[in-house]
Amino acid sequence: MMSQEAIVQANKQVYPPPMASHEKIVNDPNLFKECLKNFHSVMGSKYTVPVIGGKDLDLYVLYVEVTKRGGFDKVVTDKKWREVSSVFKFSPTTTSASYALRKHYFTLLHQFEQVYFFRHEVPLIDKSPGSMCFQAEGTIDAKFDCGYLVSIKMGSEVLNGVLYHPQQPASSSSSKLPPQTCNAIVPYNPPPHHHSGRRNRRRKGGDPNRPKPNRSGYNFFFAEKHAMLKSLYPNKEREFTKMIGESWNNLSPEEKTVYQNIGVKDKERYQKELKEYKERLTTTSGY
């Protein structure tokens, strides 16, 4: 008969124990791949090999290069992703390789690193009978038309992300124009500043169906960092602008390109929606 402690342990999903030591898997690519596949299978997470520059990403090389520099968090802090990227000798046409490596490492190897490199055993999900969810501390950092920017604390990790809600149906008293969809990649709008005078009155009387103006790559970067800083330093909001500006200046050209590309896409989104908006106005006024 299982003890009470064993039952509690059985009802919680923890990181699976390592199949081999870190030293062994960094010296044996085949053993590494076997351990990684097993890890994702036990965790119930999706395992796929990403493609960068038209070639499969060598996750073994990525893991070795990152862990020999101290692990994911250390590489982020020391800004070594560009150095890691140089090992792969991507073609010059491959843009944002450093960002892509960081994203794929976090998705596929970060938790694996916790087990094999740091030897952590962190409880993740309560699977007790009748429980269909897990407990986590969370805060809403900002609200936008399609949902919220949120910070979730799971164990020792703080995760930042976007929580979308379904588009609300238009009310019967609203305009017959089709509802505006949320097409921005990160459709975050900062809390409105309260202005007095004529400017505020002009906004109040504006057309709510008019597309929202596009934002630059820096605007998207600012929104992302502001939400993160607010969750970490809620009492230092006056310093955020300076801190975010310094962070932007410290980005590598590849990392800036990621946000600038988002800005370009948002500009295309705005131009497309504005054209459609004007066409609807022309059609409506013709009746």
Residues in helices, as a percent range: 40-55%
Number of strands: 7
Radius of gyration: 24 Å
Question: Which band does the percent of strand residues land in?
Answer: 5-15%
- The SS-based structural class is alpha+beta
Low-confidence stretches: 1-11, 123-134, 166-203
Q: What is the distance, rounded to the nearest whole angstrom, between the alpha carbons of the first and last residues?
A: 79 Å
Number of helices: 12
Query: How are helices and strands ordered from N to C?
Result: HEHHEEHHHHHEEEEHHHH
If you average the pLDDT, what whole number results? 75
Write down the overall geometry. globular
- Biggest β-sheet strands, sense, barrel: 3 strands, antiparallel
Task: Order the strands across the largest sheet as they lie in space.
Answer: 5-6-7
Structure description:
- This protein is α+β, with helices and mostly antiparallel strands.
- It has helices spanning 4-10, 22-26, 29-43, 59-67, 72-78, 81-88, 97-108, 110-116, 198-204, 217-232, 240-249, 253-285; strands at 12-14, 51-52, 55-56, 123-126, 137-144, 147-154, 157-164.
- The strands form three sheets. It has a three-stranded antiparallel β-sheet, covered by helices on one side. Strands 1-4 form a two-stranded antiparallel ribbon. A two-stranded antiparallel ribbon has the order 2-3.
- Strand 5 (137-144) and strand 6 (147-154) form a beta hairpin.
- The model is unreliable at 1-11, 123-134 and 166-203 (pLDDT under 50).
Short description:
The protein is an alpha+beta fold and 287 residues long.
